Amino acid sequence: MARRLDGEEIARQLRDLPGWTREGDTIWAVYVAPDFLTGIRLVEEVATDAEAMNHHPDIDIRWTSVRFSLSTHSEGGLTQLDVELAHQIAQAASHRGARPPAADQE
After folding, report:
1. Which of these, 63, 15, 23, lies nearest to 42 by C-alpha position?
2. What SUPFAM superfamilies does the annotation carry (predicted)?
3. Of 19, 87, 92, 102, which has the fewest CB atoms closer than 10 Å, so is most exposed?
4. Which of these, 35, 37, 49, lies nearest to 90 by C-alpha position?
5. Are 34 and 99 in contact, with CB atoms under 8 Å apart?
6. Do the beta carbons of residue 27 and residue 70 sit within 8 Å?
7. Which SS3 state, helix, strand or coil, does residue 81 take?
8. Domain range spanning residue 29?
9. Mind listing the pLDDT tens digit for each residue in 47-81?
10. Taking Cα atoms as reference points, which of 27, 26, 25 lies closest to residue 16?
């Protein structure tokens, strides 16, 4: 069972996750892939990591944009599992050339 993080812990850890935003009991980020198939491959890689952790994100795919939302529903908020998976998602996105959208594109 994962321990719920408090607001200060979440804010501190999000500083190491560019492009990630807290919204209530969820953290989320959008990554723009170079093309549609790269976005799908990113989702496949994240799905493999998530399955290994038994911690699954909500995923929304819109052409080359992929939005990942994380929350530990069983704990009613954010836990270290969410932060760890966010880091894995960020690393996978970077590896595939996907980036957070430019501020003027959001």
Report:
1. 63
2. PCD-like (SSF55248)
3. 102
4. 49
5. no
6. yes
7. helix
8. 25-101
9. 999 999 999 999 999 999 999 999 998 898 999 99
10. 27
